[in-house]
């Protein structure tokens, strides 16, 4: 299928990882193959136009843009162009209702009302009861709000043995009880991989589970932590076994939920032999559906499943200003929202690459850490991993607490928007074009609308203490200082390191 771009038409969607390449217009060249999906973040077989058109293909499609023509190809399912919905918002609302209607359910409000904390950067593969307890103790002692704590990879002996390593966790139930008493909800990292030469591997193999090669042998998959077998989530054997492991943890220790990592479509192959004869994209889709059994969930990779109460985090960013750093937070969060993933979380404050936070790391900048926090402060969720009280001096740590006060001030609006999203599917974080069509804002991705009336413009440039902000038509009030400004123009505003430029429609 070939689609000629209309005059001044731009397109958004497909892959969150490509958010910084959006929007697509006639001046750009672009290619993305999504059969199977080969991205590290959320995806949906959806492309939306500023002119009220959209493309949908149920199991994905391959797309190229050249010379003002979109070429869409699919060998697995029909792909259609839908037209006549006036603008970007009209196209989104129509697509959401038709293809991923919101189910009226919301993740637990602790995800939004309090910060999340992840133990990865502080502990890496040395997850253990003592240091996790101390991390949480320091959260309390440093006046950070108590929220959801996520225990990351290697709390168990090996992949598939989903029980606490007793050398690292001598009393996991006691730890859970203490953290609950302090006011935390506790999640643990989990994945669909099974270590070979283990009793779990032999059990699932002998029961007919696991993804196979065409000759019936269990297929070994190379991933970032080694080579493992992988669950076939279309197989009732694997489904039941994995559900039993998760339920064991919730019932035995009081684990509140799970960080469901991996499950990316690219870990599967089109020639896999599976119980349900499913595609790699469908395996990723099934992995996301596991989380619907557990309200406290988090995903980094997801196919479809928009409109569901699933927490979706951006892939790890680097601790840098450009490239794959803080510059990607806004365009990727905007892409998440336009694809229907309303319950989004930016990457960990400061970035998720652990090497940037090791003692003596040459790339670490306190200014950048604070700007990361500011950029995430008015997103639906905010997550810390590197302990700010460890990596910052007192002056810069005080800025983090001040930014948390800014979030607290706008929290009623954030909660209102995510509650609405449970029924409408509309994202809290919105493109300027989504709210103000036809004002020439199609390509603005370094500022965003929180709902329809709050404009947020983080500073994302090293050393900057001011930035230009495009104000749509109307009158706008600066959150700090209360000055009224006429819209329909670009203004330059001051922004100290501890400030986040926010404007409210008057």
Question: How would you describe what is shown here?
Answer:
The protein is of the alpha/beta class and 506 residues long. The chain has two domains: 2-104 and 428-494, Immunoglobulin-like (Sandwich), CATH 2.60.40.1180; 110-190 and 235-267 and 279-423, Glycosidases (TIM Barrel, Alpha-Beta Barrel), CATH 3.20.20.80. Helix content is 28%, strand content 21%. The chain has 13 helices and 28 strands. A six-stranded parallel sheet has the order 16-15-11-10-9-20. A six-stranded antiparallel sheet has the order 21-22-23-28-25-26. Helix 10 (366-376) runs parallel beside helix 12 (394-424). It starts with a strand and ends with a strand. 52% of the residues are buried. The model has no long low-confidence stretch (mean pLDDT 96).
Here the CATH topology of the largest domain equals: TIM Barrel
Class inferred from helices and paired strands: alpha/beta
Low-confidence stretches: none
Number of helices: 13
Top-tier CATH class of the largest domain: Alpha Beta
What's the N-to-C terminus distance? 45 Å
Tally the beta strands.
28
The average pLDDT score comes to 96
Number of domains: 2
What helical percentage do the residues reach?
25-40%
- Strand arrangement in the largest pleated sheet: 16-15-11-10-9-20
Beta-strand percent range: 15-25%
CATH architecture of the largest domain: Alpha-Beta Barrel
Tell me the Rg in angstroms.
23 Å
Largest sheet: 6 strands, parallel
CATH superfamily of the largest domain: Glycosidases
What would the keywords be for this entry?
alpha/beta; single chain; Immunoglobulin-like; six-stranded antiparallel sheet; 2 domains; six-stranded parallel sheet; TIM Barrel; 506 residues
């Amino acid at each position: 299928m070939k689609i000629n771009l209309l005059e001044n038409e731009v397109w958004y969607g497909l892959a969150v990882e490509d958010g910084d390449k959006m929007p697509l217009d006639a001046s750009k060249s672009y290619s993305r193959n999504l059969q199977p999906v080969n991205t590290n973040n959320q995806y949906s077989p959806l492309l939306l136009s500023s002119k009220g058109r959209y493309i949908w293909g149920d199991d994905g499609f391959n797309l190229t843009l050249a010379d003002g023509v979109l070429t869409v190809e699919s060998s697995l399912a029909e792909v259609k162009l839908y037209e006549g919905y006036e603008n970007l918002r009209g196209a989104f609302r129509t697509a959401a209702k038709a293809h991923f209607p919101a189910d009226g359910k919301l993740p637990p409000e602790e995800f939004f009302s309090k910060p999340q904390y992840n133990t990865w950067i502080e502990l890496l593969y040395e997850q253990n009861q003592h240091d996790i307890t101390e991390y949480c103790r320091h959260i309390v002692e440093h006046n950070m709000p108590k929220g959801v704590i996520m225990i990351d990879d290697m709390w168990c002996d090996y992949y598939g043995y989903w029980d606490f390593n007793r050398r690292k966790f001598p009393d996991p139930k006691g730890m859970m009880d203490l953290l609950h008493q302090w006011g935390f909800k506790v999640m643990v990292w989990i994945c669909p991989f099974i270590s070979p030469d283990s009793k779990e591997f032999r059990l699932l193999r002998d029961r007919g589970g696991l993804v196979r090669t065409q000759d019936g042998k269990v297929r070994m998959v190379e991933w970032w932590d080694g080579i493992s077998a992988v669950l076939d989530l279309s197989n009732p054997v694997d489904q039941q076994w994995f559900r039993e492991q998760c339920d064991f943890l919730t019932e035995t220790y009081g684990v509140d939920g799970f960080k469901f990592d991996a499950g990316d479509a690219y870990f599967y192959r089109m020639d896999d032999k599976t119980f349900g004869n499913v595609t790699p994209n469908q395996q990723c889709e099934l992995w996301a559906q596991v989380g619907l059994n557990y309200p406290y969930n988090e995903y980094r990779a997801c196919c479809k499943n928009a409109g569901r109460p699933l927490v979706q985090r951006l892939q790890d960013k680097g601790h840098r200003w450009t490239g794959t750093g803080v510059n990607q937070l806004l365009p990727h969060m905007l892409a998440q929202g336009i694809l229907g993933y309303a319950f989004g979380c930016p990457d960990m404050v400061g970035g998720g690459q652990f090497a940037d936070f090791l003692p003596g790391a040459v790339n670490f900048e306190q200014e950048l850490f604070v700007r990361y926090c500011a950029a995430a402060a008015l997103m639906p969720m905010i997550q810390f991993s590197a302990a700010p009280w460890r990596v910052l001096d007192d002056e810069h740590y005080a800025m983090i607490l001040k930014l948390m006060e800014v979030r607290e001030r706008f929290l009623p609006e954030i909660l209102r928007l995510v509650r609405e999203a449970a029924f409408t599917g509309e994202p809290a974080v919105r493109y300027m074009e989504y709210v103000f069509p036809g004002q020439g804002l199609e390509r603005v991705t370094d500022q965003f609308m929180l709902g329809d009336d709050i404009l947020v413009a983080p500073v994302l440039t090293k050393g900057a203490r001011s930035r230009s902000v495009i104000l749509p038509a109307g009158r706008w009030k600066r959150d700090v200082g209360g000055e009224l400004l006429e819209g329909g123009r670009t203004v330059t505003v001051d922004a100290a390191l501890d400030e986040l430029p926010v404007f409210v429609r008057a």
